Amino acid sequence: MAQFLQFHPQNPQARLIQIAVKLLAGGGVMAVPTDSSYALVCHLDDKAAINNMRRIRGVDERHHLTLLCRDLSDLSSYAKVDNRQFRLLKSATPGPFTFILEATKEVPRRVSHPQRKTIGLRVPDHPTLQALLQAHGRPLLATTLIPPGEAWPLNDAEDIREKYQKVLCAVLDAGACRLEPTTVVDLTPMDLGGEPILVRKGRGEVKLLNL
Question: Rounded to whole angstroms, what are the CA distances from 113 to 60, 61, 74, 103, 129?
């Protein structure tokens, strides 16, 4: 049964953050608020939790999962980034963008795209999620909480608890999120001198990226 942890929207309680960290360490999948919509998250190195998260979300290994990072120093440890890509990343982080990049060896093979060897990465701008990432000490694996067969993500913690209370370890409630998912941008064409590709228009303003 999912625990329901209610956070102050601007000053998340450290005691509740520590509870969430322990639940993740125990192999749980939880729903967390972000600066776009709610997302599912789990520990990066927990195979069973990753498989469970994919099952809840209704996606297979070809669906790009995302690493939620505290800052760009985290991001550069898990993705191969050149100077041109880094300048673009710096202009739009933290914020509601997901960037597809070539994964480094720090990313377990089971979570990167099986053919492209890429991974989604982003630095969220949300107090509760940032506090969780800081306390956890490393990135979390995530996917937007869009129910299978539906087009829009969930954004209300009470609705999420009612729908997923038997399969999640916790729901972190810091108030309703936006309904829009992140803007997704593929930066891998830049590896060969090309331009970024807009994969999905979401909440992030593409003008920040000069696309």
Answer: 10, 7, 20, 9, 25
User: How many angstroms from the chain centroid is the CA of residue 186?
Assistant: 16
Q: 58 lies in which domain range?
A: 3-209
CATH number assigned to the domain comprising residue 14: 3.90.870.10
Task: Give phi and psi for 190, each to the nearest 5.
Answer: -70, -20
pLDDT, one tens digit for every residue, the chain (211 residues): 899 999 998 999 999 999 999 999 999 999 999 999 999 999 999 999 999 999 999 998 888 889 999 999 887 789 999 999 999 999 999 999 999 999 998 888 888 777 788 999 999 999 999 999 999 999 999 999 999 888 888 889 999 999 999 999 999 999 888 888 899 999 999 988 899 999 999 898 888 787 7
Q: How many domains does the chain have?
A: 1
CA–CA gap between residue 2 and residue 8 (Å, rounded)? 19
